[in-house]
Amino acid sequence: MVDPTSDLGEDVDEADAPECEHCGAKIVQSPTHRVVTWVEGGAVESTHFCSAECRDAYDQ
Predict the structure, then answer these.
(1) Of 11, 15, 31, 33, which is closest to residue 23 (Cα–Cα)?
(2) 7, exposed or middle or buried, with CB in 10 Å at 0-12, 13-18, 19+?
(3) Minimal CB count within 10 Å: which of 1, 27, 45, 51?
(4) Residue 51 to residue 55: CA distance in whole angstroms
(5) In whole angstroms, what is the distance from residue 24 CA to residue 58 CA?
(6) How many Cα atoms are found within 13 Å in the side-chain-facing hemisphere of 52?
(7) Do you know which InterPro entries this protein is assigned to (predicted)?
(8) How distant is the alpha carbon of residue 27 from its chain centre?
(9) How far is Cα 16 from Cα 38, in angstroms, rounded to an integer?
């Protein structure tokens, strides 16, 4: 599998692409793609958003 967090989602097949945590849209070659990462229980966790707007709406 190609890393779905690669720059702009290059070379990511839609079947392997991450989904926006807020709206569920597949994120493929999206320059507005946002990834939020944190450490929980000693492991790195992350979640993906298709835009800054979805990222902001998720926090509310």
Answers:
(1) 33
(2) exposed
(3) 1
(4) 6
(5) 12
(6) 2
(7) DUF7576
(8) 7
(9) 22
User: Given the structure tokens 């990222």, which residue do they identify?
Assistant: 55
pLDDT, tens only, 6-43 = 554 466 778 888 999 999 999 988 889 999 999 999 99
- Name residue, tokens 């994120």: 27
Q: Report the C-alpha gap between 38 and 23 in whole angstroms.
A: 21
3-state DSSP assignment of residue 42: coil
CB 33 within 8 A of CB 8: yes
Residue 22 CB neighbour total at 10 angstroms: 19
Q: Give the number of residues written for the chain.
A: 60
* Domain definitions of the chain by residue range: 7-59
